[in-house]
Amino acid sequence: MSPLHMHGLTDKELIERCIKGDRLAHQLLFESYAGKMMTVCKRYSNSKNEAEDLLQEGFIRVFKNLNQFQFKGSLEGWIRRIMVHSSIKYITKKVNRIEFSEQNELEDIVVQENIFSSLSAEDLLKMIDSLPKGYKTIFNMYALEGFSHSEIAEELGIKTSTSRSQLVKARKYLIKRLNNIQKKVG
Amino acid sequence: MKKMDDIFKQRLENHESEYSSDVWLNVEKAVFNTPKKPNYVLIGFWAIIGISISLGGLYFLTTVNNHQLNTTEIEKTINQRSLNETKKSQNPALSHIDTQNQTSSTTFVESSVKKETTSKTSNEPSIGDKNQSTLLVTSKNTNLLNQTNQNTQGKWIEESGRIIIENDKNLNATDLVKSIWNESNPAFVAEEITSIPNELYNRSLINPLNTLSSTFSNLIKQDKIELAFKKPQECPRFYKDIWVPYGFLEYGSMYPIRKLTLTNESYPDYVDARNQSEQINYSFDFTAGFGIKSPKGIVTEIGIQYTQLQEKFNYVDPESIQTTTVITIDTIITGGMQNIVKDTAFVDLPGSRRIVTNNKFRFVNFPLMIGYEKNINQSFSVAGKAGLILNFSFSQKGSFLDENNLPVYFSSNQLNKYKAYKSRIGLSYMLAAQFNYHLTGQITLYASPQVKIIPSSITEDIYFIDQTYINPALSLGVKFSI
């Protein structure tokens, strides 16, 4: 239970208090979503420290732009989008160039669901983290955030085809890791 | 079969990862350290203070100029008197007023006057005190008159003093009196004349406008006359029907009455738990400020005030257990054989963990008071005041029970600690009575029973308990007219 007790407070009321400058409301909003957003940031980063930097920058943007939230979607979705955009911006700024190799392999890759049963969310995060930078960013954006290839291309300044090929590579890489795990387990 | 992407998404979508508490601290710093919109209330308040100080300063300067003007007027009057007396001495028709005036100008220059001043604050002079410093002045000094008159606004006139007149026997009474007049001040009254028996004591001796008594005429034939003076009772400035700007310092002892009000029904026992674990301690405030009293007795005051409310948190953990190990060693001798038997027992003592903290709530306030002061007599006056107290900053540290009845530490300085209190509490109100004793013409001592009311909660709006105070206080202070 949160020590701050915002029982019955809606997102709208919470945001209104934040906009008025209520420090406790800011803290409550942060604590309500920071854990989930940390997962998002970890997916895009190479280390915990980097993920915390992303989380920090993302929430600063969230608080500075709260008055622009239109209440059309969920607050969580809006914060998540800001986190992803902040993460991408941060990463592309920090890493001068993300290596993307051209390859035209388009296929849906399926995997046995039971492979995942022995893996925790943290294990999955570690697997994503082990992906090469280019693969990781595109896998995150496409598979987990729901960006289209054209949106990814626009966001990262790459060709649509590059986005597709990187996704395939990322998937292959992950399947390889999953298969290795399966062999070890079973 | 399921697409791998969906599995990843499903498993990670609601997963929460741990993060360092530093993240929030940094976010908070970044968000709240940005420049805020101007606080027009605060700006207005400071503007009032600035204007008040400026007006006070202007008033002070104007008063000083008036004093200087008066000094010049006195000087002129005295010069005029000397001139008139000289004319009398030259005009036989006027000489009947005081025949001794005829030799005044010559003898006056030759006379010498010793003045001794003391640094004692007592109004009672003591003749013959060897610790007194001696200042030799002579009427040969052409600046004496000016110097003396300037001294009417200066320091020494505020003190007890004495004049020792070393008479050269050529000095006539009028010249002697002139010397005294110039050297002391009309404001001084001779309290003792050592050479004169008490029954012959006469205050008018040193008033050059009065006819000299025969006693004094005889007296001046002695070689040495010692006069001791004390400043006459001044009418306190605070008593007068004039504008009196003043500064004041005040220390108040407070006995706060706290009220906790639950705003969330989910914790019905919480208020009782807090009240049982916390006790009000001695609290205090200190105020410094400026005020002005109008001729009609209207009093306006502004200042800066530091207030510290203190509470004691005393908590005994009911689930804590202190285990004492008791080892008993018995020596048993059987048939010459010695056996040692050790027995170990554990004694549990419940409720042995105690946490005691002195909770401190610190306020920096700007009080703005208005009131009415009524004189009872020259020494006493009473006043009633009411006003607003604008809180500038509020900080706190200490411990209390959280909603789970567990002790938590709160601190406004450490951002990662439990935060329940505001950083500013807005306006409070104050009512005060004031009993004044005018110690001197410039200084007044007072005692002031007061009630300070903090109507709005000092907790954050969304915190589940409201905490308000009514603070009865007894303040002691000093006012000094500027």
The class by helix and strand makeup of chain A works out as mainly alpha
CATH fold title of the largest domain in chain A:
Rna Polymerase Sigma Factor, Chain: A
- Helix fraction of chain B by DSSP (H/I, runs of at least 4): 10-25%
- Tell me the CATH superfamily of the largest domain in chain A: RNA polymerase sigma factor, region 2, helix turn helix motif
The main sheet of chain A comes to: none
Poorly predicted segments of chain B: 67-161, 183-213
What would the average pLDDT of chain B be, to the nearest integer? 69
Give a topology summary.
The complex is a heterodimer of chains A (about 190) and B (about 475).
Chain A lengths: L10 H9 L3 H22 L3 H17 L10 H20 L15 E2 L9 H9 L3 H12 L4 H8 L3 H26 L1
Helix pairs in contact in A: 1-2, 2-3, 2-4, 2-5, 3-4, 6-8, 7-8
Chain B lengths: L1 E2 H10 L7 H12 L7 H51 L13 H7 L1 E6 L15 E6 L5 H8 L9 E6 L6 H11 L5 E5 L20 H6 L4 E7 L13 E11 L2 E6 L7 H8 E3 L2 E11 L4 E20 L3 E14 L2 E14 L2 E23 L4 E22 L5 E5 L15 E12 L4 E12 L10 E17 L1
Antiparallel strand pairs in B: 2-3, 2-4, 4-6, 5-6, 7-10, 7-19, 8-19, 9-11, 10-11, 11-14, 12-13, 14-15, 15-16, 15-17, 17-18, 18-19
